[in-house]
User: Fold these one by one.
Assistant:
Number 1:
Amino acid sequence: MELEYLEPSFIPSWHKPPSLLPVNRLRRELLHVVETYPVTIIIGQTGSGKTTQLPQMLNEAGWCDDGKVVAVTQPRRIAATSVASRVAEEMRCKLGEEVGYSIRFEDVTSAVTKIKFMTDGLLLREALVDPLLSRYSVIMVDEAHERSISTDILLGILKKIRKRRPELRIVISSATIQAHEFLRYFAGSGYDQDNQENPGGAIARIVSVEGRTYPVDCLFLESPPEDYLERTIRTVLDIHRHEPKGDILVFLTGREEITEVVERLTDSVASIGAEEHALLALPLYAGLTAEQQMYVFEPAPENTRKVVVSTNIAEASVTIDGVVYVIDCGFVKLRAYNPSTGVETLTKVPISKASAVQRAGRAGRTQPGKCFRLYTEQAYQNMPDVTPPEVQRSDMAPVILQLKALGIDDIVRFDFLTAPPAELMIRGFELLYSLGAIDDYAKLSRPLGLHMAELAVDPKMAKVLLSAASFGCLDEMLSIAAMTGAESGSVWVNHDDGKEHKELTRRKFAAEEGDHLTYLNVFKAFVTKGRKEMQWCRANGLDYKFMTRAVSVKAQLGRYLERFGVRVDKSAASQKATTAEAIQRCLTCGYFAHAGRMQPDGTFLPMTMSHHHHHSCNPGADGHDHHSHDHSDDITPALQSNLHRHIDFDRIVTLNESVAGSGQAIVKKTWEQRFDDEPYLESDVDEQVIMTIPFTGQVKLHSLLIYSEPGPTAPKSIRLFRNREDIDFSIASDLQAAQELEVPPIPTGSPQVIELPLKRAHFNSTTSVTLFFQDNQSDGDSDVTCVRYIGFKGDFAPLNREPVTVMYESAANPKDHKIIQGLEKTNSFLPGQ
């Protein structure tokens, strides 16, 4: 039965009439608290009605008068769209009129919309245009206890907005275990834990709308199962054979596990025999189409027990009535970002105690239930209390970019609910700097960084799109971005045609250059042959709704680029075929951090982001794209950005399921002289030396390199002054230096370059460096400071600056001090080069 054919009083997700929902018993109290306190924190189980009823209460109480809107954010798209549909039905209006929703690349609202459901990330994007979110009178953050990264950032933004807009009301829906953390966060200095009645003071208050729940018996295993999927199937069949009627909800970790269990349960139905014992197994995960997801909400046929096999999406985001039995595998897949590799993975980990309680609670909504936990009681005791928030395990680059675009420059001091690890922050800044989104002062670059923030895609893909026109592949990259960013399930659909047929259909679109080109082939085939033919999509194993959404996403991304002044010429794309190499080069502009070097054993070593620089993504005058993929094995002792210029794409392996091969990166370097003037030298009768080195632009210095003969003439110490060209011998010894370096003894034998690390914070925005070499503390010419070479490592602040080197040799007689090579390519000078 389709959703639209159900009567208003009987819908898949919520069967209980609104007047009977627990939240309605607290209508007067809730409205009073919202009116009185800037922040209201609501504790309520899924199904209590807080998400659907409170926005309607606020509308009826006048919070939507004078054109104002009540916003309700959700951590998941499925929740935003399904709840909006439900509320629109209750208010007897068409979806998109008084009640609407906005998710990424999809806006179903109008000028008369009063209640707007959206993802929390979408509301953050709205703040780019309206920093104070002035159109909203009340903002409700639902399921805040899930602690998605967008939710945490949104709460920080709302806390700042509240100071400028005291009339704004913030409502936070949370599980009990997290409620006081939110209260403490918003109350700030006004928080008083000794105040039992209201520790939040005049700022925030907690309201509990816990509905009546029935007891749930939690059953543990005596010993851990060898295979929890096998144990899941056995438990489902045992319940089906021996327990009274009632549907079953199974929690597993992902699509593969769910598909296997559903298929095996379906196969087992035939062996059960009698029709009165029928078993209907249904999957539920985010990758399903909306129609497939709605099946789980429909009542099972007569004499049939329904089994919903779900990810943690059924913990809180949706409510499935009729569930009496829950089977909890005890695991969940969490996204975890590895800052050393720059790769985000889904990792299977034990759930938290809070999640275990939440899962068990699904069995006690309509009658007493049972929860079968496929783990031991000791394993439960060892679980963490709560799941680590996403902000502590996610790529911070998109967050930093968005906060910068919102005008928050001092990200380190941003009031995070839970502070992210420093390593993740550093990695995020490095990536954004290498992409050119921020400058040397960590300020948002304009227009590039601002445009990257405004594009509703990952920063790496944003850089690719903004660079695509220069590679002649803009239309193709828009198609690829649409396919990878549609976020509406999977392009591939598993029909009942067998694995062999699935592989054959996919092979028709496969490109040896990689998955991105494969997606491009799929998109091109769809828009030319199958856009209006659902049967064509089915025959080729494609999701028709996914493909139509990708077409819409491409159009919206194109409008973004046109607003930025980028010409999106579709006719040119159709007239001239773009080479795969141009597309690969363009992709490297954003995804160079994912490059790796093949090792002798066939494995790949990921490159370190510290070796990349945003210059490297710009096409060079020679027509080659200058991608920063690799770092040379040699140490180039000069002021440098460690750039490797040209990548030979024919010899690079793309690590995905579509490509195999071997090869290596080919690198080239270019050098330019970047000193403003020759270094200024001065010495005195005490055999002391002052050297001042000016640069053409602002420089960030990382280390000083010195090359001297071993023995008494080698320098013992150096005092460095930044941006001080007035240093003379009368003050050089006593004036506070930016840094004082002790030079270690140079070993006898071959002379070598010694690298001395500098305090980078002391040498930002450097236009000149003055070095003071003190007397070596003995008489005669043998101890005169004698330096053969001075060099630096660092980065030029202005774009397109290149490595520089200064070389200097002194003599015993101060009058003979001279520059022997003012500017030089150091790799042709140093020993062993």
Number 2:
Amino acid sequence: MSNDVDTKTVVQDTSTNTKTTKRKRHALVKRLHNFIPPFPAWKKPVKQAIALLIGVIMTLSDRCREAIGPGSLLCAIVVIFYFPARTFGVVLEDVIYGALGATIAAAYTILAMFCANLARDPTDPIAVQPESSGVLAIFMFVGVFIVSNIRQRIPRATFACINASIMFAFVLTDASSINGFTPSLAWQFLIPICIGSAICVAVAMLIWPEDSITNYMSVLTKGLEAHNAFFKEHSEAFLGISPISSSSYSQTTPTSSSLSVLHDRLQNNTLTLIDCKRAVHRDILFSRVNGQDISKLTQLTKTLQSPLYGIGVSHIVKDDICNSEPDHEVAVFKDTIQEISNMFEPLAEACYGATANIIERLHEFHDTKPRSTLNSILWPFPRLFIFKRRQQHDLEKDGKASYSSVGLSNILNQCKDVDWWPVVAPLQQHSEPLSLYAVSFYRHQLSNYCQRLISLLEFIEHLESTRKSRRLWIPSHKAIRKRFQQTHQDVSHDGTGGMNEETLVTGLSLVRTNTRIDDNEISYEQQPRRPSTLLSTTSHSTPRKTTMYYRDPDVDPPTTRMQRFWFKMHLLYSWLLQPQTFFAFKAAGGCCVLAIPFYLPWTVDWYMEWRGNWALIILQVWASSSMSGLFFFNSLLRFAGTAFGGILGMLVWEMTRANPYGMAVVLFVGFVLLYHVFVSKPMYRVVPMLTAVTMMLVVLYSYNFKVGVFQGNWPVYTIAGKRVLLVIIGLVAASIITMFPAPMTARVELRKRLAQTLRSIGGMYSILASQILIPETATMTSTEEQAKGLRRLALELQRQIADERSFLQLSSYEPPLRGRFPKENYVSVLQHVSTMADLVYLMGTATNEMQAHVRQQIAEAMAEHRRDYAASIVTIIKLLATTLSSKMALPAYMIAPEEARERYARALKNRITIRPDNINHPSFFCYSAYVVTSTAFVQELQNLLEVVERLVGVEDPQEWLRMHIQ
């Protein structure tokens, strides 16, 4: 009996232990499964590794290596730079640029070899001669100077410049040790570059191709969803009775944070959407929509941001009124909002539902659902279960309501027909004017938002009626032509060659004249080199086709032929002193210094044996005029990546023992792991990239020595040491070139860029103010070209502010040696500047929407007070920009923006009476928008003044008096 009990106990214990073991094993398997990233995270690394593996096979395969030549390892090097795990159109464009650059560089090197052969003495048996070496060195200097200059000024030419640098580093150095004219030397390096480029195109097109239009639709729908959530939140907050937030314009920090949050939420998706749109324009599409449709969708989506931002501003203004005004005025204001809520809540709900419906209908044009793991692995075979998913999607679509542009227009027209005077009459009698303007501002922005949603709905309805099925779309010639036009200009440095710093990236360059603009004289001129620099292009203002010179306080504009000649010499001298040009000089000089051993007969043999060309390539590729802190950080990462690559290269060689199949497998696994780090850790991308480059150089050079491509029989650690040493020499040379004579710092660049942005905002404010200050300008009818110009200026301002945010982030890499960097103050300055840019755009749209005769009436009423107020605001903006740029202290006595606004508001309240017929006029809502945004703009300017005062200080005349009492 006891034995049976013991047996049962043992069996139970055994079963319990077995269950525990299975449970632990299951937990371990689950933990490992969770640790391994999903397939979409591995798709790009595997795709890049496949491309690199094909490039490596070009060297490991005897037949391929013999067909390509001794430069076959360049196939894999070129693949690393192109990164084919991107959309096909982007890769193809980069490959075209790269092939063009390599071809031009090959022709240039052939010309250099021809000229060097002419200078060589044919009777001298020594190939390396001073005359031919001097010619090659001159061609090296000129070529590197041109390539570096182009690379600094035209970012999209980067791949062309990299390929040209590779050609210069190999051909212009190896040619010194070859007697005679041998153009085949250029082909030895041009062919592998072209083959590597073709590998990238083939992999990008055939292996898990990235769908640019799917990426675009995903970003578009996410942006519309964010816009819809923003609209619902702030519209309900405005129409509600109790305020949600407690931000007040009288408080510096809450206001700036609230308005900056509005900016971040709306602008966070815009630049990404534009980049995705450009990627779509480069691709061959198989979809219901084409590139022009995508451009129209992007344009209509961007137009939603301005009224949405206005709705957010109206919410903040409403909270400010509820928190700062007397109780009896707040009660009247809340009653008015309650009545407005009953009128406009149906329109707000219709806008919210229409946006949600737009998002659903966009999915019909191109399904944004990503492929499943099985369907991705089975590419290029058709998707599985696609019919079942589409049928389920059709059933879901049938159960949802659809909105039409006609129905939304009817709701909008009903709201526009509301008599506004009875609604806001209590505010006119018992509250401050800002309350009346705030509710009118909300109605105006809600109507604008609805109108732009109607335009978007109309376009979608047009697509639904004309785009019935998918088809192939080839990029249009217009889209291709635009890719070759430069759309961005770096203005981060001085030396503009006769131009003032006010010539900005936005194209907003006001003409400097000898006289001020009076009420009876308007002088609008254009600079011939920069057309469309001003917004006014109507028939009232005909630009004069004359040469424009920016006013220089040192000299008058040139008048004689001799003066014009020296003026051009001055422009040339200023161009040579520009940082981009000066950096190109340094890069060219550094390359010539590193190439000196190739041009001396007693050093050429060992330098060729060491393949010192790679030091020149590393110097040209990694030298840049970037910020000093970021460059030092990246230099440390490059050194680490080079060391890791050398170690991994030796490990791969020892593991495989020169077996090409084993090397291919081990290298493929290493590439996958390295590029997984490359994709998942953007901050440390330099490390896996340099690791892959150095590892391939060590392995492939060791294999070439093993099979007899190169003379010698060196051990792998010697080859690894030489490769690592040459890479480090190139990195050290790049560091010296970048840091000498004075490195650029992100914090200084941030301060100068902020000053430039402020000048641009001041220029926009001056143009807008002139439309309601000068009667002759006010009578001009607003044109579509002016509206486009205003949108273009606003977008360029946002790009400029995005660059400034990048500089602010880069400042964290710079150790504050002389003292602590006041980062919190610059964060505040950046927030205020970005908010002012948004507000001045709202002011511009409101001004352009006013009728011409209304603007004329505003300009003629209280012209003197209005001009004094505008002069104060423009002067303060100009003063803040100047103090930031020159680190000059603010004057001891100046009028504050709030004080100027209060004086002007008192004058308006005492002299201007708003009648019922004025309130019901359509332009009154535009004027309300202008007043509210102008008030917010002035408050942001006041807050900015206080922050800048903390940065630069204020002059203290009393201190001088105290110092000279005795």
Number 3:
Amino acid sequence: MFNPRKKTSRNGGKEKKKGKGKPPMFTHRRGIFSKRDVSDDVTKPWAAVGTWFLGPKAENADVFIDLMFDSIRAHMDFRRGFYPCDPPYVTDELRKAESFKRSYEKIKTELDNIQKDLYRSVPFFSTRYKGHVNWDTAVPANLGYIASILWNQNNCAAEGGPATTGYEVQVGEDLCEMVGLNRNTSLGHLVAGGSVANVEAIWVARNLKYYALGLQEALLKEEQLRGPRGYEINLSHHETPTLLITATQWELLNLDTDTIIKMPADVATLAEIDQKALRKILADYLYESIGAQEFCNRHKLTTSPCVVVASTYHVSFLKAVTITGLGKDCLVTVPVDANARMNSQVLEITLREKLLKKIPVISVISIMGTTEESAVDPLVDILSIRTKLSQEGLNFSIHADAAWGAYFSCMFREPHVSVAMASPAEESFVPELQLNSHVTDQLKALNQCDTITVDPHKSGFCPYPAGAICYRNQGLNNFLSLTSGVVYYHGDINLGDLGLEGSKPGAAATGVLLANRVIGLHKNGYGRILAECMFTSKILYCYWVCMAEDTDDFFCETTKPLPSGKIPVSPDSDEKVDYKTFIKRNVLGKSNEELSQDKYTMSILKEIGPDTMIPCFSVNIRENKDVSQCNNIVSAIFNDLSHASTEESEQRVPMIVTSSTMQDHKYSLALKKFKERLGLSTDNKEGVKYVITTCLDPWSTSLEFMDDFADIMRNAILNAIGTVTDKPDCHSFVCTDKVNEKNEIFVCYAGNFSQTQHRYFSVARFKFHSEADVATFNDAVQKAGDQPVVMQNLKTEPKKLHDLLFNDSGEKRETVKFDFFVGLPSGIIRPFMTADMAIKDVPRYDHFDKADEQYPEVATYVMYGNLNDAYLFHIPTKDPDYLQIVRLAEVPKGLGDGGEKSVVLKQGVDAELPRVPGSPTFDPQTKKIKDPLADTKYYVEFVGIQGQEIKTTVMIQKKIWFDGDVLNKSAVA
């Protein structure tokens, strides 16, 4: 489904350089470094990013393998050195046993099977991956994980992992400091993931909310607690302190977090007992001890509490309120604005309603980067609202779900002097872009939240599982303690007492710690990585905004709208343009160097687009008001650009994305506004689907890379529209003249520029089910002479081309029935056989694009085949043009040897013939397009293994088919 480069006005009106074909996607950091950067200058801190990842092509494999084996050898040496005089168990005699040998072979066989299965995995490491919030994991994180995994340490307590438990404590302190907390008074620890952290945050907030009420009852009833009965507390809405035992129920349910946190220590001191003894006494009074029903009965609580969150909340909060026994109905959602951020005005109205009805608010959650809408909630406003309402008697904890957004704090954190990198001697042309002002303000307020979820395995580039939770006040975690003593270990540090989990992998802590130490939680470390990713996301956002031409039948709308109004084209200009025009003039088509030096344009880029580098958009056909049709188009894009198949990947997904749906939420204007921008009916509550393109890699900063992605997406959009709107028909495929050893043939689709349902260029590989059908086919080829053998789906079973080749999920169909003809089918030609054919591969599926205004300078063909046979299929550009199939005498040189050669040909590559013009030539007498390949030997240029530009010679063995008529034939009225 990879398409040739388009030459449209999306690149800012600049025509792309002709004659070079489609630039390689994966040359060595192509276009990321300026030519000046090839000097011996060592003061290039941005180059460090190159060591932090294995690389899309495993470029750092040698170093990684060396370091990995060093770690494994260190563990082996430790085993040998531990009580070295102990005898070995696995002896030479044991190895000679047949059962030992069989078991070894079984391990090897099953491991090989696993490795084959893993080839079906999603290639998160590739720059082509733009789906979920996941990408390649950092080399230090991987090495740390691998270094620890054989030690199998358990971080439940220090006795289970003396070294790795200490690592987790350090990681917790580092993450707390990263989000602005005081590492000496805060507390952080690792969990399996953000979902667990969110559950833990609600758990502790619930316990905190009801603690004072349980403590009040204990003070009144327990003789051991007579001393603290004079204990006073400060109420936000009272000027003078109040006795805890005389405070009202509502007042005790609305104390500020810090007041509650210090109660256990204060009361224990006044009672002259330790906190362990106090916990034992309170076991008969606390919510988490006696249960919800008993607690509510004792205190005559008839109103259920609530947890407040934006309507874009993660599903883990539903899990949290059900796990903690609060119930789904207690989760109160606040609508979001057009930017998918919590509407703070509605939040205040909602909270005032709770205050009026005396409904306890356990927690308000601020989402610091949604992983679908890429939005950061207005935390500053939420904090301000809490301050205001606390003076009126309503208080609650604030939890920041910063699973995705926390690491973005590194972008404005200064490094410690000891890890600061040297300043570059000249300006870097690895483009970076900082956070917009809204996000910066919100992240800087994280240190005022009570609890914060952080996910090192998201924007921290660490392997799973590595989530975390940070507590602003380390005393808050004491409200989760379920034991009076140690866990079942007796170590110094009992991490199993700190949260939901008991046993946990020490390897995860080691990986996160090593990544923190090597990369650094500051602007020159993780901040640099994320700044490059941010630049990528803003450029991709600009492409999505400008994707459609004015003459296109479709248009795109981003979920994050462009600002309204106009801005100056330059700081000193009186001319003002809208933002879309500004992007076309000042961004698209510019080089990295030009953008880096244009501080005004970079300042505009900083403020537009997604909050946290996830540009999203939807597509609609002009004048269409039907939401379902719009959603069907987006679903078709997702099906074609997703990797969900359990079959072995044919590497036919050129760009991997994901999708979601903007749903209707009470009082929220986001969906209504989005529908209005898409021209859709707002009369119903049907949600609108959109494409998600997460930019979580620092490699794609080149504008040429982005241009490639834009071309891929444009082709996917055109294909998707065809998938939804094309009429079913019969489709003809011209066959090559040779069946390979697997009973497979290569075919080229006989498309047409004028007929909507045939406006495609496609190359595919089909397999015969029957040996008899192969024999019949070969016999027909021998008798056909100059005529091609053509296969066409049955007239009684017309289909859309997409439905013919793919099923609803975008995967290849297993079997289709075809009629076979000698020559292109017509009313007078009868099929010589009907056969069941299996679709094995579709390397090219491109929609003709009317935005292609010019022919390429030189002719471009798809070179496709296998280890033994290679074919050229001409790529038509615009009306008029031609289709052509040529069999080469041998596989061209420069494709590598053995497996490499097979991979390149199996993948299919664009090959340019420099001596052949890109525009068609016409016979002066017949006025028809003539075959441009008059010779048998031609120079070709293409991109080979590892992005190498190959120039070699090909020999034509046979011209199988040439057509300059059917392709250009006008549609019949």
